[in-house]
Each structure stands twice: as structure tokens, then as C-alpha cells.
Amino acid sequence: MNEEGFQAGGDRFPPTRRSVIEAVRSIDAEERECALESLCAAYWKPVYKFIRLRWKRSAEEAQDLTQGFFVEVLERELLEKFDPAKARLRTYLRVCVDSFVSNEDKAGRRQKRGGNISHVALDFAAAEQELGGMVMDPAAIPSPESLEEFFEKEWLRSLFGIAVEELRQFCATRERERTFRLFEAYDLEGNESISYEQLSKEYGISVTDVTNALAWARREFRRIALEHLRELCGSEEEFLREARAAFGKDVK
Amino acid sequence: MKFLSDRALERLRDSAEVPDLTGTRYRLLERVARGGMGVIYLAEDEQLQRRVALKVLDLPEADGDLADRLFREARVLARLEHPGIVPVHDVGTLTDGRVYYTMKFVQGQRLDTHIESMASVADRLRIFLRICDPVAFAHAHGVLHRDLKPANIMIGPFGEVLVMDWGLAKILPKEGAQKSQLSDPEATIFEKPGQAAVSKGLQGAPIATGHGTIMGTPGYMSPEQARGDIERLDVRSDVFSLGALLRFVLTPDSIAGASPTKHRLDKAVEAICLKAAAPNPEDRYNNVQDLALDVARYLDGLAVGAHRETFLEKGARFYRRYRFFILLIAAYLAMRVAILFFLHR
Questions:
Q1: Which of A102, A118, A141 is at the close of a domain?
Q2: Is residue B3 part of a domain?
Q3: Which tens digits make up the pLDDT trace of A127-153?
Q4: Are residues A146 and A128 part of one domain?
Q5: Domain residues for A157?
Q6: Is A165 on the interface with B (CB under 8 A)?
Q7: Both B277 and B180 in a single domain?
Q8: Residue B160 falls within a domain, yes or no?
Q9: Catalytic residue check, B147
Q10: Which DSSP string corresponds to A156-218?
Q11: Within an 8 Å CB–CB cutoff, is residue A250 touching chain B?
């Protein structure tokens, strides 16, 4: 399969993909809804886990609050109030979550929500499984100081998870399933001892082919992740800052 | 959606650093390690069909003067042809603007691992002397290492000692190679430009807090280097690191620069460590050769310059050095006394 259409190192975000911040201000209702869905897809898991740990809520309460939060973002037009010059979107949202849960407590409100974000599949059972024993084990609950770090890490996990999923689909459309399996085996499984030689034997291909396939998959993963990241940032400056935080180096 | 473990996250983050070697003669094989200045990969030189270590520096953009300086100084480093210095083969720029260089791929053991298998103090000191050789050679060619530590010393499969990672190396002005003052404090090989402050402060972890400030490793970094006083850096800064390294070689379980009372060493060798790693550069050995000479004298059982001996210590050293002859003469005298005793009975 050729790789035409993809420039080496061409990871600058394509200008056609709009930021959710711009999209929620659109007069087009469909575009606004799409923007919220993108935001929800990237943030629901970090928000859910954050509520579970920071606010020590039961799984059911946290599910309700998570859905309620995104409804509130839409209804109260919280994204329109966001100023990229003052804070990062992620920090702003985390503060909004705190404020939302706190207000919910004061008002004593409890209601089932979620109708407006039904297009995003919120797999709470999976999120709960990922949390594992953290909620039950008090020693494993992050300290208040590290909760922000925890939120950031979960956000990164969510962003990369979306990018990996999209890469899987992209590979399928390009008939590069084997490439994805190599990428999965080497970069996602967390097996420290695996080598290119082992993969080449397992798949009956040369080490050069393994090298090339992994290079391609990583480049595409990075491109996809950066596209999503750009979408979730309010400005080019924030995007560059976030890209550095996510990938540990400057993105050009 | 598949759950990504912390390890997978790290791996994906690292994958962003994977260099695109399009347009170079190298093919990437595997990531080997991350150093203070960048990531080291195992690569294959497709023209010469040999494996090389490829180091990609954390330089997002190398342009103009900075790039010129990097290349110029990399060439100087490449000229350091010594069996104890890992040779630089090539230097270039990647498509994303990062600078890379390739060097000999060394397989062996790090000093900190290797030293555990060496029981004899004499053997350890001999290893130390072999570390001093390439450092002295580099100094003679006007290059400071600035990051000498156990992790940067490799012992090859045939016992060869190699000083690695010259990423923080600094070029001295020609006439000033052995002088205490430098006129070009910015002449640094592969220095990180304008990097955000990073200060891990861990033993063995490199510190880089921005351009021209603090670079090196706590415990092995001279006080003037730790202060970022780069104008005062000269060969004695590496002498300090060698002093810390000498203490490590003799007491590997110790923390470099630790209190001498914690680990009892022979007074003479303790004095050598203290003199080499003296806080004030003026109190240290003037150069690596002087330090190596003192260590060699200690190995030969001779008096060392760093320690003024008492009469008893002189006697003890004399005894240690000529123990065989002294015991032989003593045995001979004892035998003569015994014979005389029996003859006069």
C-alpha cells in the first residue's frame, strides 16, 4: 500500500479542521453539536474518573454527573466563555467540573441526564474497569496535588485512545491491518522484551518491513493525535503548548 | 476502545521522537536509551552495512549560528581519535530540524555494573587510570567532557575502557586548554538552546536548566559547574568529576562526594580523592596527568603528592612496598641468630 498523500513530518494540523471552541460559536446547530461530541469523546473518561476520585462519588452518581456536566457545557454555553489567553481548555474544564459538582451538591439536585450527548458512546463499565481498585483502596487515591496530574494523564490516555482507534480504522480502510497489528504488538502491549527481529519472525516478514511498517503507523498515529489535539485547543499557541506536553517535544 | 496502559502511553509519546531518517544513509533499528541531551538509537549504516549508535539531539530547530556552531564543534569532537573515546562518524540534520550524529555502537558493561565484579583495589585503580587517559587526551586537544560519571564509562568485551557521551563537552580556546580562565564560555558542543528549566536533582540524572547555565550530574559535577559559572570551567572541573569517580570506583556503594568518614579508605588514596574533588579549583590537581600520576604512585607503593606522611606511615608504606625483602632479610637474620645461639650453647 502506498503512502501517497502523507508528507513525511507533515504533522501540522490541517487548517480545515476547526477547533471546538470556534465550532461551538457557530450559528450552525449541527456544527455546534458535532463540536460538543468531539469534546465529550475526548473528555468524558477523564471527567468521570476525576469525579469518582476527586469527589469520591459512587459509579452511578459519577455517571449521572458526567453526563450532566456535558449537558451543562452545552446549555450554559460554557465553551463560549472560555478564553484561551487565560488558561488551557483542559484546566478550564477541570475547574468547571469542580464548580458543577459543587453546585449540584449545594442544590441537592439529582436527575438522570444524557439525552443531548447520546451520539457519544459512554462506556462507563470500561471506565470503571480501568479505574480498577483505585476507588476502593484509599492509599491508591491520588492526593489533591496530584489530582491535576491525574486528570492530565487520563486526558492524554483518552486522546491517544481515540487516535489509536482511528488509526485502526484508517489501517483497515487502507488494507494495512498487519501494520496495525505490528504497531499494537510493539507499541501498545507494553511488552518490554519484544524486538523487531521477533516480530519479523512471527509475521514472516523482513526486519526492514517491520521497521517501515512501524515508522508509518507511528507517523500516522501522531498525525491523527495532533489533529484531534488541535481540535481540542482554543488557539495555535495553546495547541503548540499542548503538543509539547503530550509528545514531549516541539511540534513543527 | 482499547485501554492504554501507562507503559503504552510512554511508548506512544516516545514514538513521536522517533526520527524520520529519510534522505540519510541510516536505517533505524531500535531505541537504545535516553540521555541528557537526546535519544540514542541503534541504526544501520546502509552504505557501509554496519551498526552505529545514532543520537538525535533535543533540538527542535537548528538554524543559523547555532547549527553552524554545532557542526563546527562536532567536527572538533570527531577529530578526537583515541582508543578510549567513542568516535563520531557523522553529523547531520533531520527533516524536522533536529540535529543527529552517529558514533560507534559500543557493546559492553557500564562502569557501575562492571566494577561490582572487581574485588581488587589495584584492579579498580588500573581501570581508573585508563579512564584518565582519554580525558587527558581530550584536554590536550582543548575539549572538556563536563559529564564524567559511571554511567558514561563503558567497559568493552575485551576490557577496553571507553569514555562515552560527549554531549555536554566544551571546547576550550587553543592556548587556554590548560589555563584556568576561558575566553569563550559559550563554546559548547550540542548544548540545549533555550530549553525549559529541568532539574531532576537525582543522583545520576543529568541537569539542564537552560542555555549556558547548569549542565552535568549532581555528585559528579564541580561546584563551579553546578553554579553555572561557566567562565571558570577548565580542566580542573573534569578533575573534580574524576575525583568523584575515583571514590565511586573504590567504594561503589557510596554516593559520590559523600563524607569520607562513611567509607574508610587508605589515608593516601583518601587524600587523592579529597584533593581531586576539592570544592575550590585552586586546591585540586592542576590537570588529569597529575591526578593519574598520584594514583599510579599509590599503586606502586610510592609517596603521593596529595598526602604528607608521618614517620610511622612512611615506615608502614616502606614495609608494604618491600615486604618480601624485609621478610626475607628478617628470616635470614632470625636464622643467623638461631645458628649462633645453637653454636654457643
A1: A141
A2: no
A3: 777 776 555 455 555 666 677 788 888
A4: no
A5: 142-252
A6: yes
A7: yes
A8: yes
A9: yes
A10: HHHHHHHHHHHHHHHHHHTT-HHHHHHHIIIIIS--TT--HHHHHHHHT--HHHHHHHHHHHH
A11: yes
